[in-house]
Amino acid sequence: MTRTRNSRTPKKRPTGRVRALLGWALKLSLVGLVVIAGFAVYLDATVQEKFSGKRWTIPAKVYARPLELFVGQKLSKEDFLTELDALGYRRETSASGPGAASVNGNTIDINTRGFQFYEGMEPAQFVRVRFSGDYVAGLAGANGGKLDVVRLEPLMIGGIYPKNLEDRILIKIDQVPPYLLETLIATEDRDFYSHFGVSPKSIARAIWVNTSSGAMRQGGSTLTQQLVKNFFLTNERSLSRKLTEAMMSVLLEVHYEKREILEAYLNEVFVGQDGQRAVHGFGLASQFFFSQPLQELKLHQIALLVGMVKGPSYYNPRRHPERALQRRNLVLDLLVEQGVATQEVVDAAKKMPLGVTKRGSLADSSFPAFLDLVKRQLRQDYRDEDLTEEGLRIFTSFDPILQMKAETAMSETFKRLSGRKGADEVESAMVVTNPETGEVQALIGSRLAGFAGFNRALDAVRPIGSLVKPSVYLTALEQPSKYTLTTWVQDEPFSVKGADGQVWRPQNYDRRAHGTIYLYQGLANSLNLSTAKLGLEVGVPNVIKTIGRLGVQVDWPAFPAMLLGAGGMSPMQVANMFQTIANGGFNTPMRGIRSVLTAEGEPLKRYPFQIQQTFDPGAIYLVQNAMQRVMREGTGRSVYNVLPSSLTLAGKTGTSNDSRDSWFSGFSQDLLAVVWLGRDDNGKTPFTGATGALQVWTSFMKKADPLPLDMPQPDNVVQAWIDPHTGQGSDASCPGAVQMPYIRGSEPPAGAACGGEQNPAESVMDWVKGWMN
Amino acid sequence: MNKWWIPALTAVAVLHGCASVPRGNIPVVDSGTRVSNSERVSAKRPSAYPTSGGSNQAQSLPEDSGVTVMIPQGSGGAPISTTPISTGPITPGPVSSGPISTNPNPVADEPFDIASMSSAPAATQAPTGIPRSNSGGLSADEQLDGPVLALLTTAQQQQSSGDFNGASSSLERAQRIAPREPQVLFRLAQVRLSQGDAAQSEQLARRALTYANGRPDLQAQLWNTIAQAREKQGDSAGAALARQKARVNL
Question: Where is this region: Disordered (chain B) (predicted)?
Answer without folding.
Answer: 23-62, 119-142
